[in-house]
Amino acid sequence: MNTVTRAQLAETIYAQVGLSRNDSADLLETVLERMSRALEAGDSVKISGFGTFSVRQKGRRIGRNPKTGVEVPILPRRVLTFRPSQVLKAHVNGLAIPASDDE
Amino acid sequence: MTKSELIAELASANPHLLSRDVELIVSTIFDEITAALARGTRVELRGFGAFTVKRRDARTGRNPRTGEAVPVNEKAVPFFKAGKELRERVDRGGKSIHAPSRAERVLA
After folding, report:
1. Phi-psi region of A17 (alpha: psi -120 to 50; beta: other; left: phi over 0)
2. What's the confidence (pLDDT) of residue B94?
3. pLDDT tens sequence across A81-96
4. From residue B55, how far is each of A2, A19, B50, B74 by CA, in Å?
5. What is the pLDDT of residues B72-97, one digit of tens each?
6. CB contact, 8 Å: B9 with chain A?
7. Which helix (H) or strand (E) holds B13?
8. Could you report the predicted ipTM of this complex, rounded to two decimals?
9. B-contacting residues of A 40-59, CB under 8 Å?
């Protein structure tokens, strides 16, 4: 199973939109950067028909070093979660695509 | 941020592009990721994250209302794992100056 990377996505933009290869790669990067900034600010990013990226605050808890068994505090942190839309879930299961959007 | 807000931001940052094209670009990106996942292909965007498809085995579920056992078929679930850079940026959030390393956090 191969992997799709930035290069292939940029190539698709180039082929479909008719921007130069350079502009296509730049635009892709800008999209990812804008999304990253929103998430960094704690905002969620909701892409209809695809899914929602959101930031969750996790509290402090006691973890354990699995190797030594020593207890270590895990400090509060913020983590990113992705919730796929019904449309995306249907696509990966080869099912009929729900007409209505998400959630 | 919604998809249309993302498009609006990109359009104002790129006045040389038609907003129709910006919209097409954004849609193309998410459509391509969707198409790759539908083929079972992983999408890896270094620094941002990786989209993969995870298989879930068939199981016996329960109707939570009636308690009745219901067979749940095997299915595929889209999954996103944030890349190292994005994960650290999100965790750092407002506190912008210095991101404590894992070791510093453990010792804190």
Report:
1. alpha
2. 54
3. 999 999 999 999 988 8
4. 17, 37, 16, 7
5. 999 999 999 999 999 999 998 856 55
6. yes
7. helix B3-13
8. 0.87
9. 40-51, 53, 55
- Taking residues A22-49, report their average pLDDT: 95
Kindly state the greatest CA–CA separation across chain B: 59
Q: How many CB atoms lie within 10 A of CB A35?
A: 19
Enumerate the domain spans of chain B: 1-41
**B71, B58 Cβ separation under 8 angstroms:** yes
- Select from B2, B20, B79 the least CA-distant residue to A101: B2
Q: How far apart are CA B81 and CA B12, in angstroms?
A: 30
Choose among A4, A31, A77: nearest Cβ to B10.
A31
What are the backbone angles phi and psi of residue B47, rounded to the nearest 5°?
A: 85, -30
Q: How far is B41 from chain A (nearest CA, A)?
A: 6
B33 by DSSP, 3-state: which? helix
Distance CA B77, CA B37 (A): 10
Give the model confidence (pLDDT) of B39-72 as tens digits: 999 999 999 999 999 999 999 999 999 989 999 9
